[in-house]
Amino acid sequence: MNPYPVHIDRIRRKEYPLLNKTTYLDHAGSTPHPKSLMKDYQKLMNAHLFGNPHSQSPSSLQSTEVVETARLRMLHFFRADPEHFDLVFVANATAALKLVAEGVRGHAKSRLWYGYHADSHTSLVGLRELASAGSRCFFTDTEVATWLSEDFNSPSDELTDGQARNVGLFAYPAQSNMNGRRLPLDWPGKLRKCASKGNTELYSVLDAAAFVATAQLDLSDHEHAPDFTALSFYKIFGFPDLGALIVRKGAGHVLLKRRYFGGGTVDMVINGADDVWHATKQGALHEALEDGTPAFHSIAALHCALDVHTRLYGCMSNVSQHAGHLAAFLYTRMASLVHSNGAPLCTIYKHSASDYQDSRTQGPTIAFNMRTCRGSWIGKSDFERLATLNNIQLRTGGVCNPGGIASYLDLSPREMRENYAEGLRCGNGIDEMNGKPTGIIR
Fold first, then answer.
1. Which is it for strands 266-271 and 276-280: parallel, antiparallel or unpaired?
2. SS3 for 424?
3. Helical residues (DSSP H) of 184-252, grouped into ranges
């Protein structure tokens, strides 16, 4: 491995002093914040009075300007043209996904059909419970490709309920939060073409939360971009704890018929005894979707986060190259580790199509378990305790990816139900059941 870049070492010492006595390996959960980001944010808050943006006072107008310029800057960061996209501030990626499902469910009088990839985060899988017209799990990329192939008439076969047409969502992660493998980004464009041919209302949802931490999300091609993209900013910058839903304006209308409305999203509300009515705001899309007072202090922090990130790292491609190089080096070393009898130490859960030398197919995440020289499993909880004693911070367990865990650990639905019946719960420290691990080390 080449010597560690001097400027990276300098950044680590200056910007991340909290890491001096620990090895932090849970960037997939949240990346640490740089010291200068918090300093800049403190200066910003001490220098300006920010009022509730739902008013016309000078402090409120200042907040409105900060929020709207942050919205435009983040769209630019993701190469999304404001003419074709809007950005809705939400609490996190999960809130963004819920907002999409809530909006589509209220669209017209149709029922919701939901398709999702097996590599999805739990929050993406959970949307299936809102799909009154049914749901389908796609277990492989090939299954998705076949569904979207030229030979397939249209998705309307699964979206037709008698004579009625249902509205459909197809959702998947840009990057698996379990093992970092990256999925095809051309599916939304193919889906749009397929839906158009079949005269079907079918929209794409991309969970980009894991992907954006170390890769450039590029929405410059609006005709082939996802309809809805969910992400969390703390995955990129470490702070603030805030998320976004990026909406392709061509699909935004399906979100405007949701039942719930909150403060700031309506122009008129009537609470009459016999006349109950409200008028949703008709301006920018985000005005009708950001319920209540926006998190304007956190949104203000995005300006500091983006400035510091650019100053330290330049662009996301630099982050991607550096993180990818480290992951490839670590993967090669871990894959070569053996016991004295030649038995492999690590079982690494890598997708067959992914390559740590190719950032298009693999992100900088490694999921694995460990074995003794006799082949028995080393408990992930024991490993984590030893790691903690040695000041190494990582994550173990099911990592909120039920499909990935089931697939790579070869756990059937029956086995998972039996494990639950026998006491397995999320994070309860049971590492192995019936000769198989119950989770992974990431």
1. antiparallel
2. coil
3. 187-197, 234-237
Taking Cα atoms as reference points, which of 319, 231, 307 lies closest to residue 38? 307
Buried b or exposed e, range 135-158, using 16+ CB within 10 angstroms: bbebeebeebeebbeeeeebbbeb
Identity at 395, one-letter amino acid code: R
Using an 8 Å Cβ cutoff, are 260 and 291 in contact?
yes
* pLDDT value of position 200: 82
| DSSP class per residue in 347-384 | EE---TT--TT-TTTB-S---EEEE-TTSPEEPHHHHH
Question: What integer is the mean pLDDT of 241-255?
Answer: 97
Candidates 137, 373, 400, 426; catalytic one: 400
Q: Which amino acid is at 376?
A: S
Q: What pTM did the predictor assign?
A: 0.95
Is a pLDDT exceeding 50 seen at residue 151? no
List the structure tokens of 173.
Answer: 């992660």
- Reply yes or no on whether the pLDDT at 273 is more than 90: no
Does residue 238 have a pLDDT over 80? Answer: yes
Which stretches within 18-112 are classed as H helix? 35-47, 58-77, 93-105
CA neighbor of 202 nearest in space, from 186, 217, 187: 187
Name the token pair of 298. 């956190």
pLDDT of residue 111: 86
Asked whether the beta carbons of 66 and 78 are under 8 A apart, the reply is no
pLDDT tens digits, residue range 39-88?
A: 999 999 999 999 999 999 999 999 999 999 999 999 999 999 999 999 99
DSSP at 161: E
- Other beta carbons within 10 angstroms of residue 426's beta carbon come to 10
* H/E element, 277: strand 276-280
Say whether 137 is catalytic. Answer: no
